[in-house]
Automatic annotation (TrEMBL):
Residues 41-170 form the Bulb-type lectin domain. This is Bulb-type lectin domain-containing protein. SUPFAM superfamilies: alpha-D-mannose-specific plant lectins. CDD domains: B_lectin. Residues 1-20 form the signal peptide. The lineage of its organism: Eukaryota, Viridiplantae, Streptophyta, Embryophyta, Tracheophyta.
Length: 409
């Protein structure tokens, strides 16, 4: 196995507290990518734990890493899918050499090289690329004194007074963890593909009355394809109608359930929320879990098995009867999805010719460049209806719906 890793210079006092393990970081502390490289979960690639020497004297004692109390979570440099693109990530199952899975990423939109470093300069924590440009920094106006990692998977940055100034739970990437709250307006998003952790085209957003999964192509209107709702909104607009004085909150539990309920705010004028809570069970038994929005738009619940491996316990497509065509990009941008067979490509529809292809490999049809140019001076809106699914609290049923949206040519 390749050995590279994280060399930490001048990291110091370590303390275990009720909320987790806290590491004090002095000025000019630096961690570079050197040390042992561990294999990660699935296609996530390999990772290198950030090391934390026990004291300033460079003693030859056992190497300490930036880990939570029980070693479940660790801060690491992730070599995503072996691409050589590195990301500063929190890894779940960090001390298990086969199950380390990234559950939060700092520099999602800006991968760095293996010459990069994590450093504290002028009180600021920064991830610097090899050319010393900043790839990520949590705050420009708060002095960071220490880093805390707890057993829920939350990383907390503290100031010199011990006050929390930043938390990873407030900035989800593509994963929701048990105990993590998603409140109205917050969202998480898929990776773009298996080669990059950049934000992809699928999002899960906590609206005022529902969690909405949507296909969100660049510079285009969102196209919802699944809703879990408090009550039964029939459109995306009704899912966004606020309950006066209340905020919708979603939580994923260690028991494998998704709970959605209203929390009363200080401005509440009514004694009860607008709808009853929603509880959907995705698994059973208390365990380490992650709810991940994959790059194809599927929402998957993974459970850490006692053998040390991750197992799939729920897929969003179970609600669809495992019909692949219910995911928006099942056959890529130019593919035709067939529920009973393979994808087909729009090779030349003018002559009714199609070619069979694997999902996502279809190229733009050769007639696309010859499409007529329209006079847009007399544009009229064209209404489309997008077939979607709504999960309601009514007996746990999945209710089909038509979501309307308008496109102007």
């Amino acid at each position: 196995m390749k050995t590279v890793g994280v060399l930490a210079v001048l990291l110091v006092s370590l303390a275990s507290v009720a909320s987790g393990r806290v590491y004090t970081i002095p000025e000019n502390w630096t961690a570079t990518i050197q040390g042992r490289e561990l294999p990660g979960f699935g296609s996530s690639g390999s990772y290198i734990l950030v090391s934390a020497p026990r004291d300033l004297n460079g003693s030859s004692g056992e190497q300490e890493f930036l880990l939570s109390d029980n070693g479940t979570f660790g801060l690491a440099f992730l070599n995503f899918n072996g691409t050589g693109n590195y990301y500063l990530s929190l890894v779940m199952g960090a001390t298990n050499a086969t199950a380390g899975a990234p559950i939060w990423t700092a520099n999602r939109s800006k991968a760095v090289s293996n010459e990069s470093r994590l450093t504290k300069t002028a009180g600021q924590l920064k991830l610097l690329n090899g050319d010393l440009t900043t790839a990520w920094s949590p705050s420009d106006d708060q002095t960071i004194a220490s880093i805390g990692l707890d057993e829920t998977g939350n990383m907390v940055l503290y100031n010199s007074s011990g006050g929390a100034v930043w938390e990873s739970f407030d900035h989800p990437t593509d994963v929701l963890l048990p105990g993590q709250r998603l409140v109205t307006g917050q969202r998480f998003a898929s990776n773009l593909n298996s080669s990059t952790m950049s934000e992809g085209v699928f999002t899960a957003t906590m609206e005022a009355r529902a969690i909405v999964l949507a296909f969100s192509p660049p510079s285009q209107e969102q196209q919802p394809y699944f809703l879990w709702s408090l009550g039964l909104p029939s459109t995306i607009d009704s899912a966004r109608v606020r309950c006066p004085g209340y905020v919708a909150v979603l939580q994923y539990t260690t028991g494998g359930a998704v709970n959605m309920a209203y929390e009363r705010s200080s401005a509440a004028t009514t004694s009860s929320p607008c709808n009853a809570p929603l509880n959907v069970s995705l698994g059973s038994g208390n365990s380490k879990r992650q709810l991940r929005l994959e790059s194809d738009g599927n929402l998957i619940s993974y459970k850490l098995h006692e053998t040390g491996n991750w197992e799939t316990e729920f897929l969003l497509t179970q609600f669809f009867g495992h019909r692949a065509c219910d995911l928006p990009l099942s056959c890529g941008s130019y593919g035709l999805c067939n529920q009973t067979g393979p994808c087909e490509c729009m090779d030349n529809r003018a002559t009714n010719i199609t070619t069979v292809a694997e999902s996502g490999t279809c190229e733009s049809p050769n007639w696309a460049s010859r499409l007529a140019t329209c006079d847009t001076s007399t544009r009229a809106p064209i209404e489309f209806r997008l077939r979607s699914r709504i999960a309601s609290k009514r007996a746990g049923r999945i209710v089909p719906a038509l979501l309307s949206f308008t496109m102007v040519p």
